[in-house]
Amino acid sequence: MNTKHILASLALLFVSSSLIAQQYLKEEDYKPEDTEFWEPEVEKVDPGESNASPPSDAVVLFGGDDLSKWESVKGGDAQWDVQGGHFTVKPGTGGIKTKDDFGSFQLHIEWRSPQEIVSESQGRGNSGIFLQGLYEVQVLDSYDNRTYANGQAGSIYKQYPPLANAMRPPSDWETYDIIYTAPEFDEKNGALIEPGYVTVIHNGVVVQNHSKLQGTTQYIGTPKWVAHGDGPIILQDHSNPVSFRNIWIREL
Ligand code: MG
User: Fold this and answer.
1) pTM of the full predicted structure?
2) Ligand 1 centre distance from Cα of residue 34 (Å)
3) Are residues 117 and 174 in the same domain?
4) Cα(129) to centroid of ligand 1, in Å?
5) pLDDT band at 48 (very low <50, low <70, confident <90, very high)
6) Do 83 and 65 form a contact (C-beta atoms < 8 A)?
């Protein structure tokens, strides 16, 4: 056995004995490094130029040009109008959904209420973002427009009102950054194991803080849990010409 071998054996002995010792350490015997781990190294991501531009590992769902990542919920191509780097709900054509399905994710999306102010309450600038196609984060012109609190912009529709009304005037763009944790269901019997959670940041203001979903969004009646797997993002056609731009997603 040469010196190198002896040193290697000693190092191995030291590491294994310290690992064993760590299991029996008393609180007062801990050293700082006993609670630090280095591996696996955290993956590098290049952030976008601003907090609104997609980081290097994001999937861009709409970059300004076309709706190729989307289709109509009725089947076939998405019918909404693309113009000037954004797209707008074409009332009556139905919602649009991503061609891809997602589990848990971080979603950035920007939207703008119609310039022409018509109607009130739920009739003004209504659309919505359905997470996994089932849970609606409400889109509404809630600038100077009262409606039921758990139905205004930034609400988890009919479940949680937003923590604040962070609306800009209708001519301005709004941003949502949504962090979604998908619910988990028992593979055999479909029973709920863990509900879904939603955090929403509206124009930089936290309006949903890890809100625990109560089930699927229901217009009438109470939320219910129905077992499901990954699902699309659906944007709602609620007959109002709401516009969207700069949409990207990072699966978590
Ligand atoms: Mg809606």
Assistant:
1) 0.88
2) 50
3) yes
4) 8
5) confident
6) no
